[in-house]
Queue: 3 jobs
Job 1
Amino acid sequence: MRIIVTCLLLMMAGWVQAELKIEQAYVRGLPPGQPNTAAFMSLNNTGSQPLTLTAISSPAAQSVELHTSRQHGDMVHMEKLDSLQIAAAETVVLQPGGHHLMLLGLHQPLAEGDSVILQFSFSDGSQTSAKLAVRSVLNEPAAQQHQHHH
Ligand SMILES: [Cu+2]
C-alpha cells in the first residue's frame, strides 16, 4: 500500500527517477559557526544513457553547488561547475581534493549523527534524492589517512 502511494506521489510530482546509485555518501560535519560545508559520494550511473547532473538542492542549505578543486602552485582553489556528466555504467567519485558538493548557507549546524537530504536534477528531467549521514571532519577517511601518514 505504501509503495502504491509513493508511486502516485512521484507521478503527481511529474518527474522520473534517475538511474543513479549513490554510495559512500556523507556530509562533512564542521564546528558550529561555519556557514558552508562539503558533501562527498560516489555517483554510479546504472542506466544505458549518460546522465548530466545540472542542479542539486537541500532543505538543509540555502543552495548547493557543484565544485571542483584545482591546484595553483601551493594554493588549492575551488571552482564552480555548471554540470557534471556521468557516462552510462560509469561512476564519478566526489571526494576531498576533487569534485565535491558545497552546501552553502546551512540553516543550522550539522553534527555527527545528523542526516541531510539532497535532491539531484539531471538534464533529461530525471531526479533522485539521497539521505546523507553527517560525519565529523575528524572522522573523515582523508583526514584519518593524513594523520596516519604524518
Ligand atoms: Cu567547494
Note: Confidence is low (pLDDT under 50) at residues 144-150.
Job 2
Amino acid sequence: MFTRIEDFVVEWTREAEITANVLDALTEDSLGQEVIEGRRTLGQIAWHLVHSLHFMTSLGLVFDAPSGGEVAPASAAFIASEYRRISGELVNAVRTQWNDATLHESVIIHQEAWLNGGSLRFTMMHQAHHRGQMTVLMRQAGLQLPDVYGPTYDHWIEKGIAPLV
Ligand code: NI
C-alpha cells in the first residue's frame, strides 16, 4: 500500500505515461481483436482500463471519472485522450483531497475494510494487469508496441540487436 501521497503521485505519473503510450499505439482496426471468440475485445479492455478509475470515487474522492464502459468507443485516439484526462483528474484529486493520514483510513468495499493506501495500490496493479492483456492482443492484431518495462521486440529489431527469447 502507499503510505505517502507523494510516493503515489510519482509512481502513478510514471505508470500512467506507460499506459498512455500503449493506448496511443492502438488503431481503429485493432480494437475488435478478441481474447477468444465472443469474449472481450482489445477495445473493451482498453475502455475498461479507462473507466475503472471511477472506482476511486467510491472511496470519497471527487473527480470527473465516468462509470460504465461496456460499450467501447470506435475511436482509438478518444480512448487515449480520455485516459490522459481521467488519470490526471485522479492524481489531482488524491493530491488535493487526501493527505498521508487519509491513506491509513479505510472504506468498506464488498464487506471488507480496504485501506485507502491499499486501494491506490490495487488501482495501479489493476491497470498494469489490463495493460499486459492489451499488449498481447496488440501483437496479435499486428501492431507495433512501445517500450513498457524496457525495450519491446520491435525496439530491439530497430536497434539491430537480437531480441531476447
Ligand atoms: Ni478489470
Note: The domain at 5-159 is CATH 1.20.120.450 (Four Helix Bundle (Hemerythrin (Met), subunit A)).
Job 3
Amino acid sequence: MKVPIAVIGPDFGDVGERLGRRGHSVVVVRECDELAELIAACQSGAARVAVVAGGTADVTMTLVDRLLAVGVGIVCLTDDDGERRRLDGLGAFAASVDVPAEGFEELVAAAADHATGPDAMRASSFSFVGALPAATAVGRPRSEVQSRAAHGEGTGEEPSEPRGRIMAFWGPVGSPGRTTLAVNAAAELVAQNRKVFLIDADTYGPSVAPHLGLLDESAGLAQACRVADQGQLDSQALDRLAVPVVTQGGELRVLTGITRADRWNELRAASLSAVLDAARRTADDVVVDVGFCVEADEELSFDTMAPRRNAATLRVLEMADRLVAVGSADAIGMPRLVRSIDELAAAVPSANPDIVFNKVRRSALGRFPDRALRDAWERFGPARPIVGLVPFEEETVDAALLSGQTLLEAAPQSPVRRAIADLVCSPVQRKRRFAVPSARAGVRRPR
Ligand SMILES: Nc1ncnc2c1ncn2[C@@H]1O[C@H](COP(=O)(O)OP(=O)(O)OP(=O)(O)O)[C@@H](O)[C@H]1O
Ligand SMILES: [Mg+2]
C-alpha cells in the first residue's frame, strides 16, 4: 500500500519529478502552501507522513510532537548540514534535497513506521502512560535509514545518560505550600553538596522567584523551552538561562516561571521534556514546582493538536522520579488532597505520590494534630502512608519570605526547616540534619 504524504516547501518539485519516474511507494495527497494546511491534512488522517522540502526553519519540537501525537511522521529535506542535525535532534527524518527517489521512499517508510511505533506513542504529549521522558524518545529515529548515519552523529558534546533525579512538588488548589516546600527542599539538597536545578513550572501561579527574593522577570523556563523547541538546548545553554542563586548551603540554579498565567502555552510538553532532560543531564537533582490542575483538556475538545492547558503539569508529573503531593493540614485541605490523588491516578497512572501535609497546627486539628491527621488519613485517605508532616510556623516562614531567604538560612533550627530537610535527607544525612553550613563572605543573590 502506498504511503500518503502531505508536502510543503519550495524544494519538493525535483524530488516529485524523480519519484514520478519510478513505480513509487508514496502518493502525494496534498501540496500545501501553509504550515497550518499541512497540519490540518495530517490531523484529518489524510496523510501518514508530512514532508517539508526546504524552508525547514519552522519545524520545531512542538510541531514534531504534535504530528507524532496523531501518528504522523515527518521528513525534511535541506542542504544545510547543521540544519539536518538540528532536525534529527527534533525527531524528524532529514535528508538533502537531492536525495534519490529510492532513498526518499525509504525515509518516508521509516518515518511512517516510527510514528506508529511504541517510542512515538510514549513520546507524544498525548500519552499519559509512562514515565519515559519524551525528549529522549521524541521521534528519535532509530532506523538504519535515518540521516544521522549519513551525516554523522551530531555534536557528541552532551553527556548521553541523564544522571539527575526529578522531584516534583504538586498538590491541590488552595496554596498548600508546594512552592515553600520545593524551594526549601532544593536548598537542603544544595547544602548536601548536590548540584540542583530548581524549575518553576507552575502555569497558574508561578512564585519561585519571589520566594527567593529574585526580581527576575526573564521567565527562564519559557526561554529554555523556546530554545529546546528549536532543538538547540544543551547543558551550556541551559546554564546560561538559569539564574544562579547563592545560598549559604551552596549555589542553586533556578529557571524562573512564566511572568503571566496567560502565557502558559509557552511551556509546551515536548520542549519542557527536553528542558527537564537537559537539566538532569548536568544536575544531581531537578526540583520542579508545578500547578495544581491535572485536568486533561483534550477530553473537552476535538482539536487534539491544540496546545493543552495542563500539558506542562502533566508532563512533569509523568517524568518525575519522585512526586511529593502536598496537602494543607486542615478540614478543607485534607478532602481536597484525597480528591486530587484520585484525579492524579486517572491522569497519570504511573504516579506514585509521597503524601506530605504542610501547615500542621493545633488550631486546625486539635491538641494532638499529628495523631489527628494520621487517624483521619487512615479513615478517609487512599491507602498510602503520610511520609511527612511539616508544622505551621507563620512567623518563621513569613520572615524568610520577607527577606527572600531559604529557611536553612533564615531559621536553620526551626522545626519547619527540619521537617522539610527530612523529606530530602538520606538516613546518613538525617543524623547531621541540624548542621548549619557556615556563611561565606561576599555571598549575594541577584535582585
Ligand atoms: N509551614 C508553613 N507555615 C506557615 N506558613 C506557610 C507554611 N508553608 C507555606 N506557608 C505560607 O503559605 C502561603 C502559600 O505557600 P506557597 O506559596 O508555598 O503555596 P503554594 O501551594 O505554592 O501556592 P500557590 O497556589 O500560590 O502556588 C505562603 O504565604 C507561605 O509563606
Ligand atoms: Mg506555588
Note: The chain has a mean pLDDT of 86.
